Amino acid sequence: MSADDKLFGPGRQRAFSPFLAPDERRQLNEALTNSGDLPRGFADELRALARRYVDDGESVKLRALCLLVADLCEQGWQVAVEQDRITFEPPGLKRSGEQSVEDVKARVRAALHTARVRQLREPSVRQFLNRMERSTLRPQGWTSVLDLIDDGASLAKALKKVAALPTDERDQALAKIIDPVVEICESGAKCRDTGLGLIDIWRYFRHTWAHEYRSVPGRQMLILIRNAARPNRPVMGIAMLASPVMRLGTRDRWIGWLRESAEEKLQSGEWEPIGFAKAMRKRIADSIEAIRWDDLASKEEIAHPSETVVFRLEQKAAGAAFAREQQLKDHYEDHHDEHGRVKPYRGDLKFARPDSDWKAASEDLLFVRKRAEGLAQLLFAKSVFQAAHLSRKPLEALDQLFGSKDGQRAIDIALAEFRKAGLSSEVADVSVCGAVHPYNELLGGKLVALLLTSTEVRNAYAKRYGGQTSVIASQMAGRKISKPAKLRILTTTSLYGVGSSQYNRLILRADDHPELPFDVAWGAIGKSLTGGFGTLHLGRETAHALRSMAIARHDSRRVNNRFGEGTSPRLRQIREGLDALGLKSDAILHHATPRIFYGCGLSPRARDALMGLGVPEAAAPSARDLAAAWRRRWVGNRILRKDTIEGLRGLGVTSVRASLHADPDGQFVFPFELPSVG
User: Fold this and answer.
1) What's the predicted TM-score (pTM) here?
2) In which domain, by residue range, is 479 found?
3) Whole-number percent of the chain with pLDDT over 90
4) What single-letter DSSP state applies at residue 197?
5) SS3 of residue 244 by DSSP
6) C-alpha dihedral, 325 to 330 to 331 to 332, nearest 10°
7) Is residue 49 part of a domain?
8) Are 353 and 492 found together in one domain?
9) What is the tally of structural domains in the chain?
């Protein structure tokens, strides 16, 4: 059993002694001790207690702890007070009495539902939903978002007629009823059928998901899947492509970005050693070229690096880090207000402009540290490769490198560079993907996942992000840098940790569907039985309180949501706040919910292409061809089932609104009279 398993495994208790004054500790202990078996409303009571201290800087710790405990209780964590300690125990994968996968899903869904209901009660969210649902006169006539929800009863009637046709006529008739098209939600773009903003339409349907809606940092491309064969082109499903997580062991192992998996691929013959050696040398050279080094090292030192230059660069990076810490403290002193708030420090260059001075921007202390640190690593790897004669004797050199400590470190550096290059423009995370009523009855979620591999989506991604000036890369290089955006890999994660029916057996084989140029397949690429790190189980109010704790502790705002400062500002802010409370941040952020990871290569040998192994390009399938294969593979048989037709009849406007306007007990609460549709 690993150290992580021992510390974070399901059922393991995590006890902490938070930094509290005696009076604060007494108040918190009373609140928790008197809770008994955590009656309904306990979390709300803790939040009410926390809000009493919003403006009391001395009690910011108590406020943050109350909010944290409230969130964890709602997510199924067991919380107890033992003298001066608070004990947390996260929920495991399966609890006593749970007999099936559906039992586990229901329990996790219920925990997520609580936070979602709280968000749906927020006045701003209520106003948004009501505005979208209210029929309003627009150039298209009286319209609302409800016009974009298909009527399940009408759809069922049409599909029942198709099901009665002879087999050889069924496919063509089905295409006249279900014709999926991809629509990218661009800023300011309007729906031609209703006049509503496409992004607002996407957001409305996102609120029907099982967990609350949060914006994510980095890239995010919102996608609607609509049925062009039905009136108003109703929404069939939604998706979002987002920036991938920088480090994800399961994904990195699957691709080959970890040394152990790279060695396995070489030994199995999946990778050719000479090609891999050449690719590593080129990757290191390209990465050095992407860093401005004229103020850090000489040409000779770059060409033939030594231990001396590597040590000097490491010292330079440490000095820049120390100087920036003082810079942030000075900024805090000069800009914080009477409530302890301090505006973020984002440096002189906040975003790319035509007249941006990238050379000057590279001299910002943050990027001096990053350049010196990165160059030191790269020159170390280059020196090790040169000493092993990787270019002249690749086979012998690889054996030597994999067998020595310095060689392993050099390979790790090269693989990390492959990972950074791939994640910057060739890999995307599918953070939202699913069907909207009534198309969930027709396995619309599988359709959405398949259409993300289409040429329409890939071209839209390349158009939006390809050729953009990269703020981080340009500051690292000291000159304008633009990167192509060529999607090769999509990844996603199961929400419930027990498998996903949406991605289960999700494969279309070219042998069965001649219109497809190659097999299109989603598949499980690995799992984490002990869970992972994240902030999904912590609410927005808690995150804000923990950020305040971090700022107060460091006398500076070290997380400024600045390009280049680090990945996932929310995660780093919460981590610093938990540490400031005296809690082990890893133990709280480790949600102990197992995850299954899925991946999809968008062309044959897409993973090898990420390693620079010279794989030929392949044309992507069109959305039309993927939709035809989906209808043939799943829908044609599904409409023959009586339960599918019956299930469709109960889905539509009423079922969607019920998911948005129900109280915690599931009772339907209309905010106003049901608007007319159409």
Assistant:
1) 0.82
2) 249-434+443-531+595-610
3) 57
4) B
5) coil
6) 90
7) yes
8) yes
9) 2
